[in-house]
Amino acid sequence: MTAAIPLRILRGEVTDFDTDEALVEGLCRGDSRAELAAWNRFSSRVDATLRRLLGPGQDRQAREDLLQEVFIRFYARVGTLRVPGAVAGFLTGITVHVVHGELARRRRRSWLRLTVTGATPDIAGPPPSSEAREAVLRYYQKLDLLGAKDRSIFVARTIEGLTLSEVAAVHGLSVSTTQRRLARAIKKVALLVRRDPVLADLANLAEGGTA
Amino acid sequence: MSDDAPFKENRAAQRARQAEADEALVGALSRVARAVAAEDPSGPSPSAWHRLARARTEPARSRRPLVWAAVGVATCASALATFEIVRLVRPAPLTYDVRGVAQRGVGPVEAGPQGTEINFSDGTEIQLEAKARLTVSAAGPHGARLRLQEGGAHFQVMHLPHAAWTVEAGPYVVEVTGTEFDVRWSEGEQTVEVKMRSGSVRVSGPLLSERVTLRKGQHLLARLGMGDVRIDDGRSAQVVAPAAIAPAALPSAPPAVAAAEPSAEVAAAPAAPVVLPPPAAPAARPVRNAVRPRAPRRIALTEPAVEEDTTTGRALPPSSPFEPAPFPGTTPAPSRAERPKWSARNWSGRVAAGDAASVVADAEQVGLDTTMRQADAADLGALADAARYAGRSELAERAFSVTRRRFPGSSRAHTAAFLLGRMADDRGDARAGLAWYRAYLGETPSGPYAAEALGRAMLIVERLQGREAAVPIAREYLGRFPNGTYLLQARALVDDR
Question: Can you give the residue range of the structural domain that contains A163?
Answer without folding.
Answer: 127-211
